[in-house]
Design brief:
Layout lengths: L1 E5 L5 H10 L3 E5 L3 H8 L10 H9 L3 E4 L10 E4 L14 H11 L7 E4 L7 H14 L8 E4 L18 E5 L2 H11 L6 E4 L2 H32 L3 H8 L24 H8 L7 H26 L9 E5 L14 H11 L3 E5 L5 E2 L4 E2 L14 E4 L8 H7 L3 E3 L13 E3 L1
Parallel strand pairs: 1-2, 1-4, 2-3, 4-5, 5-6, 7-8, 9-10, 9-13, 13-14, 14-15
Antiparallel strand pairs: 6-7, 11-12
Helix pairs in contact: 4-5, 7-10, 10-11
The structure holds ligand SAJ.
Ligand SAJ binds next to helix 7.
């Protein structure tokens, strides 16, 4: 068998490696020629794929990358792993997927399987991809070639569940498409979960991430209420989490970041309107989560006020700007919004993040904490993302004021100089 993986990013490259390490020949179709060169030289640019592992597969002749879609012609399956962002109007933007599908169609061969892995709204595989593939090839989906959807479940940096070990949902256009998808994915992945249609698979992925967005929004709403009622929301959540059944712990924070959770839900709310349906939970969760940077800035304002200081002119040090702890990903990070809001109030903002050396769009570079000696020079230290590499005990000792949006200072005795979300 030979597989083509289209798009060698944080989803496609690990997936290509899983197939190659199962002894299946893989060709990566990657638009960025420099990335192809890196891969063919055995150098990885994706955190979850080591250079050694990649080089081993390249040297064995089991994996190479090219920009040329003609390389898909002798493949048994073509797996599309491309970004599906929102456009400026926060509507689905399938451009990368549809452009790639049109190029693939020109090289489609009878009997091949095409699988879409990009997160999208139910109906995309059947109503968007199939017509493009049929128009470009003259073949018929489900008759001359197989078509399926299989959502990616990659969580960059996670080691307990990997692309190989995480159960893989797959929905075929027809039972024969499903059977073919099982033949393709089965030898490489530990657990393939067949479902009856591509729509079920597309919707299941959205449910996974909407579930997170809504529950995080619930915690954020509770955090704002507890703030007003002077109740420690973190203690409340920890107490509720002692329930061994029927509860799942989420935490409040400065907002939703990442390439999935802030974006995927709006693929469904957009599609639902076609059915005269308003996905109120999704919209409300989005509204609550979007408000958190503003709430956090207002809370910081109140904390400074207790020291007769204003935001205007305040010297602030933000700790952690990545969208979540212990990674270097800045996509949709709420820290960027917090910095913009603080600057708009006239604050002088520095940041330190051991994973993110610079924020070009904000003309900022991570400052050196100088063994935490630098901490005392700020009016407030603001914990936005709680990287585990930082010593929060020393930070609390050295800082005049700490405003902690992540409960990173939990259990650390303070002299009343710590405010928490
Ligand atoms: N966040 C909170 N409170 C929480 C959890 C997360 O405020 O209780 C924030 C994070 O700080 C971050 C954002 O939400 O800014 C998203 O966090 P996330 O933990 O959902 O991490 P992601 O965005 O990397 O989500 C990915 C998703 N994986 C895929 O889409 C394949 C998601 O489905 C996974 O469940 C999640 O990783 C995971 O479990 O780590």
């Amino acid at each position: 068998m030979k597989i083509a993986v289209i798009g060698l990013g944080y989803v496609g490259l690990p997936l290509a490696m899983v197939f190659a390490e199962a002894g299946i020949e893989v060709v990566g179709i990657e638009a960025v020629a420099e990335r192809c060169a890196e891969i063919n030289a055995g150098r990885s640019y994706i955190q979850d794929v080591t250079g050694d592992a990649l080089k081993k597969m390249v040297d064995k002749g089991l994996f190479y990358a090219t920009t040329d879609y003609a390389a898909t012609e002798d493949c048994d399956a073509d797996i599309i792993c491309l970004p599906t962002p929102l456009n400026a109007n926060r509507e689905p933007d399938l451009t990368l997927v549809t452009d790639a599908t049109a190029k693939l169609a020109g090289h489609l061969r009878r009997g091949q399987l095409v699988t879409l892995e990009s997160t999208t709204y139910p109906g995309t595989t059947r109503d968007v991809l199939a017509p493009i593939l049929e128009a470009g090839s003259g073949l018929i989906a489900g008759v001359d070639f197989h078509l399926a959807f299989s959502p990616e479940r990659v969580d960059p940096g996670r080691t307990d569940y990997t692309t190989k070990s995480t159960p893989k949902v797959v929905g075929g256009l027809t039972p024969a498409c499903m059977a073919r998808a099982l033949e393709v994915y089965g030898p490489a992945l530990d657990n393939v979960v067949p479902v009856s249609t591509p729509e079920v698979a597309e919707m299941s992925k959205l449910l996974e991430n909407i579930f997170r967005s809504v529950n995080i929004a619930l915690m954020n709403e509770l955090a704002m209420l507890c703030d007003r009622m002077n109740i420690d929301v973190w203690e409340v959540i920890d107490a509720a989490a002692t329930k061994p059944f029927g509860f799942m712990k989420f935490q409040p924070g400065p907002g939703l970041g990442g390439h999935c959770i802030p974006i995927d839900p709006f693929y469904l709310s957009w599609k639902a309107r076609e059915f005269d349906f308003w996905t109120e939970f999704i919209e409300l969760a989005g509204k609550v989560n979007e408000n958190m940077p503003y709430f956090c800035v207002e809370k910081l304002h109140r904390a400074l006020n207790t020291r007769q200081k204003s935001l205007n002119g305040a010297r602030l040090l933000l700790l952690g700007v990545a969208y979540k702890a212990d990674i270097d990903d800045l996509r949709e990070s709420p820290a960027l919004k917090v910095i913009r809001l603080l600057r708009a109030h006239g604050a002088d903002v520095d940041y330190h993040d051991p994973y993110c050396a610079e924020l070009p769009e904000l003309d900022l570079k991570s400052v050196d904490l100088e063994e935490y000696r630098r901490i005392a020079g700020y009016d407030a230290v603001v914990i936005v993302t709680a990287h585990s590499a930082l010593d929060y005990r020393t930070i609390v000792q050295e800082a005049d004021l700490v405003v902690d949006f992540r409960n990173a200072t939990a259990g650390i005795p303070s002299a009343g100089n710590v405010w928490k979300l």
